[in-house]
Write a structure and sequence with these properties.
The chain has five helices and eight strands. With 189 residues, the chain is of the alpha+beta class. It has a four-stranded mixed β-sheet, sandwiched between helices. Strands 5-6 form a two-stranded antiparallel sheet. β2 and β3 form a beta hairpin. α1 packs across α2. The radius of gyration is 21 Å and the shape is elongated. The termini are far apart. The C terminus is likely disordered.
Length: 189
């Protein structure tokens, strides 16, 4: 991920930009993941650096055609690439987008950000793709990751003795420590 300051340095708008950029980043190859946000849906654009001459669009609610908002966002990305490297011939590039059924897809209108994060994790090799039925658990795992400021494995490890957990029961939330496990059930010692 590239923040705005580093992006300005990359395209030469920062003070001593080349020195700063090269001293902070040493990569043979990396992915540039760009969240494409519109009013109704979030999706993901992926660039592989060094350039492979194609862009990937990953959408958890793809239509029959490329959505105009995604097309406009990818056009802006192409403009930025051209600004970074004027030798890039975008006429030789290809755009690749998933179709319905190519990847797990959301079945509601609110999990697009969750799917965009899951796709990003899979693309960088940190997680395996999970099924649509596990998205609710993955959403909860994301909340834990945000709270703890660290990534956890997917699928998550089971409940561990001596660690604290929040449990939702009926309309109440309980926080407590797992003590030990006997025959698959958690019991106090």
């Amino acid at each position: 991920m590239i923040d705005t300051g580093d992006l300005n340095d990359l395209i030469g708008r920062g003070m001593r930009s080349q020195d700063k950029w090269l001293s902070n980043f040493i990569f043979d190859e990396y992915l540039c993941l760009i969240k494409l946000a519109c009013a109704a849906n979030n999706s993901l654009a992926v660039e592989t650096i060094p350039w492979e001459m194609f862009e990937r669009g990953v959408d958890s609610m793809p239509g029959d055609d490329i959505k105009p908002t995604a097309h406009n966002a990818l056009s802006k990305i192409c403009s930025l690439l051209k600004e970074i490297d004027s030798n890039i011939d975008l006429g030789q590039w290809r755009f690749i987008a998933n179709k319905k059924g190519d990847v797990p897809q959301q079945s509601n209108d609110y999990d697009c950000g969750v799917f965009a994060c899951l796709y990003a994790r899979c693309l960088v090799g940190y997680s395996e793709m999970i099924s649509e039925t596990s998205i609710s658990d993955f959403r909860k795992l994301m909340l834990l990751e945000l709270h703890e400021s660290k990534l956890h494995p997917v699928p998550p490890e089971g409940i561990q003795p001596e660690r604290y957990y929040a449990v939702e029961y009926v309309e109440n939330c309980y926080i407590g420590q797992a003590l030990n496990q006997a025959d698959g059930f958690w019991v106090e010692s």
